[in-house]
Amino acid sequence: MLGTPVHLWAVFGIVIAVALVVDLVVLHPRSEKVSLRKALIESAAWIVLSLLFGVYVHFSLGTVPGVEFYTGYLVEKSLSVDNIFVFILIFQAFQVPERSHHKVLFYGVFGALVMRAAFVLAGVELIQRFHFILYFFGAILVFTAIQMLRPGKREIHPERNWLVRITRKFFPVVTDYSGDNFFVKRERKWYATPLFLAVMAVEAMDIVFAVDSVPAVLAITRDTFIVYSSNAFAILGLRALYFALADILPRFRYLHQGLAAILLFVGAKMIASDWIELPDLASLGVIAAILAITIVASLIFAPKQGENRAH
Known about the structure:
This protein has 311 residues and is an all-alpha fold. The chain has one domain (6-310). The protein has helices at residues 6-27, 36-61, 63-93, 101-129, 133-149, 162-170, 194-218, 224-236, 238-245, 255-271, 280-300, 305-310, and strands at 183-186, 189-192. A hairpin with a 2-residue loop joins strand 1 (183-186) and strand 2. Helix 3 (63-93) runs antiparallel to helix 7 (194-218) and helix 3 packs across helix 9 (238-245). The radius of gyration is 20 Å and the shape is globular. The N and C termini lie far apart (47 Å).
């Protein structure tokens, strides 16, 4: 399938399906606030599962695809951290109860898996048919990196995004919550709840993030299986990462600069790929080094409490 043995796709699908069932049925059978301890354990479990799948890729396809998987996973995992800030804004905008956060993220991430598949297939097909698309994708990444480095606060209003507005046109919406229901029937008429709007906001924002993250992984490899599987594992682990880092993530004052540096690196790598071939291990090392520098700098030059609130 798309150049990859069918059994590899089958194993990948089974692993993802089993993990989702365990997450929804075993770990989160009912809506409740996710504790920090539980979030840290689940986040570690997702990371370990991703690393083990990378080992499977290594022994099934070889050393190069294995390194490409880890590099793509690290890039996607790094960029997906920026989603956490958006999740916080979405939950605030729609006043989502804490016990319902996991349900919103579960369905939002499940939809993101479907949309990412479409983005990956389209991206790989475009590059194979039109080589110049490489430069276009690289330019998108470089432009995004420059935008992230520009001073000034980025204004995001999730309650006004296009998918939420479309949803409001097709469904009447109530202003109050009805437990964890996406829809509620009142006076013989069905209404969408703010919880459903929150899921639509998550889906819409993932489309925006996919424009950056998918080309970023395509700068590492053109293998459809590697691109999508690394994306999928990073996305699936994002929910647990949100509950683990939502409170402390704003303290990493240089996070956006670090993510911008990663985008700038992979964008330049994609543009220069016809003339400069950078080994996969070198790319992995550069990205890991950028992340390490970002974290260390944020810890050393941590803002004071008042500055952190303002940030």
